[in-house]
Amino acid sequence: MREPDALEHARDLSHANTMALPCIAERFWCAQDSASVAAALRLANANDWPLTVLGGGSNLLLPARLAGLTLVPELPDITFAPGEGESVVVEVGAGVSWHALVTACVERGLWGIENLALIPGLAGAAPIQNIGAYGVELSDVLLWVEFVDRRDGQCHRLASTACGLGYRDSIFKRELANQVVITRLALRLSRRAHPQLGYGVLAERVSKSPGLEEIFSAICAIRREKLPDPRELPNAGSFFKNPVVSASSAAQLTQRYPELPCYPQPDGRVKLAAGWLIERCGLKGWRQGAFGIHARQALVLVHFGGGDLAELLAFSAAIAERVHATFGVTLVREPRQVHEADS
Ligand SMILES: Cc1cc2nc3c(=O)[nH]c(=O)nc-3n(C[C@H](O)[C@H](O)[C@H](O)COP(=O)(O)OP(=O)(O)OC[C@H]3O[C@@H](n4cnc5c(N)ncnc54)[C@H](O)[C@@H]3O)c2cc1C
């Protein structure tokens, strides 16, 4: 039988992941619409191929050889429709760059995702780990997610409340991991100003009642100062999640380390700053072989070139062991390995 035109073989993905890990995908498919996503899934099912969904590759750790089918949902388009009161419903295809979406919304005077400017990757991946930055998470504005399910080949729509969204977490990393391809999502944004300035240095960088564009520009400037550009120094952003510990563990730690940054959570637990823990172990700027901890941002691991996944995992395990030995706190990796599911 003739292979579908969309199917490519031996595609080099070394430049399609921001960590620049060397990777060849055995089979590769770019889908421009839901029908093409469904066709790719039928082919994968018929051949029993493992499936990898690839967005911008900014939160994914790729192996040297990626077996099965790698699918990129490139669905385009952003639409804006009036919602209730001053709200506007924004629908976006999975293939739209997240930052392009934020920019388009800011240009239209729509509030809600300006604090999430410059997060790399595509819109379709945003619900996977419920992207967040500067006190705002996708869950604050998400209305629904549409996806094609590998098990029945059908398109489904899941309300935001059913997506199990939490800190860097969602149903798509657990029960639905490796089962669905997100094709579209909808956000509820607002024409009414509601600046979110409570996190980090943001309030110091803007005027007393900042406008939407001012906040957007400040976020972009802060991020450009703090984070290495993956095009210049490959990285996957924060390599570890900020650990969330019980209130009693946090209290014990702050007795020993009064300057430890702590963020109380609504459930009574306390979020700690993983970057601070790593830095306090004296690891900032530490390099071993092809990988290192960024000299200005201890949470970011960088790839100097010539390394692979096994070396990166060994390096990150050594960091996590040092933090555990010093503080008794377990660090959990943020970027995902292919075919990984969280329990
Ligand atoms: C410099 C830098 C800064 C960053 N800053 C932040 C930050 O501030 N906040 C934050 O939350 N994250 C941040 N990240 C992480 C990353 O940008 C986000 O997680 C982003 O949403 C990943 O998008 P992506 O398209 O690159 O996904 P990928 O890395 O391609 O994929 C990530 C995961 O989602 C799955 N996936 C992707 N698309 C789909 C789809 N359509 N359907 C089903 N599954 C899919 C993949 O299989 C994989 O498991 C940063 C990363 C970098 C490199």
From TrEMBL:
Pfam families: FAD_binding_4, MurB_C. InterPro entries: FAD-bd_PCMH, FAD-bd_PCMH-like_sf, FAD-bd_PCMH_sub1, FAD-bd_PCMH_sub2, MurB, MurB_C, MurB_C_sf, Oxid_FAD_bind_N. Pathway: Cell wall biogenesis; peptidoglycan biosynthesis. Residues 21-192 form the FAD-binding PCMH-type domain. PROSITE patterns: FAD_PCMH. It comes from the Bacteria. The keyword Ubl conjugation does not apply. The keyword Cell division applies. Its EC number is 1.3.1.98. Cell wall formation. Belongs to the MurB family. This is UDP-N-acetylenolpyruvoylglucosamine reductase. It comes from Salinicola endophyticus. The gene is murB.
